[in-house]
Write a structure and sequence with these properties.
14 strands, single chain, alpha/beta, 407 residues, 12 helices, binds pyridoxal-5'-phosphate, Aspartate Aminotransferase, domain 2, four-stranded mixed sheet, seven-stranded mixed sheet
Length: 407
């Protein structure tokens, strides 16, 4: 009977009727009422610590300073048609380029990470005069026909053909760094016409951290071949791993970095390609000519977010809180280790349960919303503003959930 269906379940049912169902998005877990700081609350009043947040909530959900900045922006300039400059867009570009280590940099903004990946590929193609890309098999770079084609060598045949000239190499997390370097070296010399770009996440959102020598060696190979090195930091950038850019954990500098997700403060969708000015070579081409490329609201969200991250030292806070998580896991019989850096972590289970659905349900029952990371680990990716007490609360919930499954 309708009267017995909770408000949350009723919304989930309506949602399932009108949205196309797709992997990773449906079925919905609950209907949401509000988000705040490290928490989400459903329509039935259940509260969960959000250890996922789609990696958008670096400064906490509904950050009051960000909300105030957006309200003020709504009272001033709400849209900027193409070919007009506006203050938040320009100030954001100035702030992001100022973070770029090394020479001068420029940016383009898009509304989502997948689009920004495509812009990065275009810049590399135009600057090198080549079209091929190298990416790591099983990586994820988004859902455009270009971006998703980087992710899988052989995507589902029902989707039809993807961009040509894609070369996929064996990833370090599955086959080791030597195999990956071997494949890259071979692809760089044997791909007809040469390779425009190699694209990879410097620290994977699945929390695999490569050995320190890997990226410097990839950089050396790319330099020798005249190939651009693009780092996708859509989930890992902006301080999440304990450094502003994830690549700063290694002795390497890419030619371009792609940022997204948390850039809009978890409120508004915006992504960015930040690249060396050497790539500013085709003013006659439309490279990322998107309707909302300089939207004053999305750029205000990003400007405020990046300013908060830098002002409050959130990268260093992520690095410090990582140590708290590691210390607690070291004493847990239910957790055997931690992968990742900063607050982009995966907690490895001593006894991984066979059923992912049961694990996630048990976590929700303990007030923890998250995802799995591979077959053997739970994602632990809270806001960088999470308190020490909330971290303990989250770990208590995880331990209780795991214990309830394994006896
Ligand atoms: C590594 C990586 N690249 C690209 C994307 C695509 O970003 P968006 O969903 O904003 O298009 C994602 C999204 O999850 C991602 O994790």
């Amino acid at each position: 009977m309708d009267s017995e269906i909770s408000a949350s379940a009723a919304l989930v049912t309506r949602d399932a009727k009108v949205f196309f169902h797709q992997h990773g998005s449906s079925p919905c877990l609950a209907g949401l009422k509000s988000v705040s700081g490290s928490w989400i609350e459903d329509l039935d009043g259940r509260r969960y610590l959000d250890l996922h947040g789609n990696t958008t909530h670096h400064i906490g959900h509904a950050n009051p300073e960000l909300i105030a900045a957006l309200k003020a922006q709504l009272d001033t300039l709400t849209f900027s048609p193409r070919r007009y400059a506006n203050e938040p867009a320009t100030a954001l570009a100035e702030l992001l380029t100022a973070q770029w280590p090394g020479g001068a940099a420029k940016v383009l903004f898009t509304t989502g990470g997948s689009d920004a990946i495509e812009v990065a590929i275009k810049l590399a193609r135009v600057a090198t005069g080549r079209s091929a890309t190298i990416s790591l098999e099983g990586a994820y770079h988004g859902h455009g026909f270009g971006a998703f084609g980087l992710s899988r060598a052989v995507p589902d045949a029902r989707l039809g053909s993807f961009l040509p000239d894609r070369v996929h190499v064996r990833p370090y997390w599955k086959h080791g760094a030597a195999a990956m370097l071997h494949d890259i070296e071979r692809a760089l010399v044997s791909t007809p016409g040469g390779v425009a770009a190699l694209i990879a996440e410097p620290i994977r959102s699945n929390c695999h951290v490569p050995p320190p020598e890997l990226w410097p060696e990839v950089r050396r190979l790319c330099d020798a071949a005249g190939t651009a090195l693009i780092f996708d930091e859509i989930p890992s950038g902006l301080g999440k791993t304990g450094k502003f850019f994830a690549f700063q954990h290694f002795d390497v500098r890419p030619d371009m970095v792609v940022l997204g997700k948390a850039l809009g403060g978890g409120q508004l969708p915006i992504a960015a390609v930040l690249a060396d000015t050497r790539f500013d070579v085709a003013p006659e081409l439309a490279l990322g000519h998107y309707t909302h490329e300089k939207n004053p609201l999305t750029t205000r969200a990003a400007l405020t977010t990046v300013s908060i991250i830098l002002r409050d030292g959130l990268p260093a806070r992520a690095a410090a809180l990582e140590q708290q998580v590691r210390a607690r896991v070291a004493s847990s019989p239910w957790l055997r280790g931690v992968r990742g850096r900063g607050l982009l972590l995966a907690l490895e289970l001593t006894q991984p349960p066979a059923d992912e659905g049961r694990l996630l349900a048990a976590l929700l029952a303990q007030g923890v919303s998250t995802t799995t990371k591979g077959d053997d680990a739970i994602g632990f990716s809270p806001p960088l503003t999470i308190s020490e007490a909330e971290i303990e609360l989250a770990l208590d919930g995880i331990e209780r959930a795991v214990r309830s499954l394994v006896g």
